[in-house]
Amino acid sequence: MSQYFTKATFRFLEDLAANNDRDWFNANKDRYEDTVKDPARRFIVDFAPSLKAISPHFRADPRPVGGSLFRIYRDTRFSKDKSPFKTHTGIQFRHDSGKDAHAPGFYLHLEPGSVFVGVGTWHPDSGSLRKIRESLVEDGAGWRRATGKRFQGRLRLSGDSLVRAPKGFDPEHPQIEDLKRKDFIGVAQLSESRVTRRDFPDEFAEVCRAGIPLVRFLCRALEVPF
Fold first, then answer.
1. Which CATH architecture has domain 7-221?
2. What is the DSSP code (8-state) at residue 95?
3. Of 193, 44, 183, nearest to 113 (Cα)?
4. H or E element: which one contains 22?
């Protein structure tokens, strides 16, 4: 098996966090290409067969722009933080009906001190969020199965939540805490050492498979095929 991410991947990201400016990045761009971008694109290509076995409706797209690998450049237009670069790298295998990071998908986050796999949908738009909540109300048993034993063996529900019940939903509903969610994602924390192992693609696939019930529930709620 090929090795994709290495200690050098995390050393580059640590150095970038300490030198987050364009001059430093341009001087070290070859390091970024060699230790972060190129390994990530190889991982995306090589994971495609495993992803297809999970579902044919999710994309493994190695394109450097618009593909599964998020760009290292930050959008600073509406942020007080004008740091030009992200200090992590992210890969999302998103649903083929989705156009951005808010689509249902399987996600890998690599950051020094914070490595995790995420499955589900992060910050869905208001219409999608309402559909998910309505599906949870209509099929509470299905939601409990989706987040049940198989899911909990590898993942935990995470993300942002409202303080109060969302408008139009019963504050006394037995699953009100789930209805308050603004993100419907499961997260599995990993160590840097596990990501740098040659068999990491197998472990990533295992975590993704544990999240299938949740992602299938979300696809059904959003009326897209799984």
1. 2-Layer Sandwich (3.30)
2. B
3. 193
4. helix 22-27
What is residue 1's predicted lDDT score, i.e. its pLDDT? Answer: 63
List beta partners, residue 158. 185
Q: What is the pLDDT of residues 86-133, one digit of tens each?
A: 999 999 999 998 877 688 999 999 999 999 999 999 999 999 999 999
| DSSP character string of 61-73 | ---TTTSSBPPSB
Q: Domain ranges in the chain?
A: 7-221
Q: How many CB atoms lie within 10 A of CB 190?
A: 18
Here the tokens at position 166 are 């969302």
Confidence grade of residue 73 (pLDDT, cut at 50, 70, 90): very high
- Those residues whose C-beta lies under 8 Å from the C-beta of residue 177, and which sit 6 or more positions away, are 161
> Residue 207, class by beta-carbon neighbours within 10 Å (0-12 exposed, 13-18 middle, 19+ buried)?
buried
What is the C-alpha separation between 145 and 151, in angstroms, rounded? 9
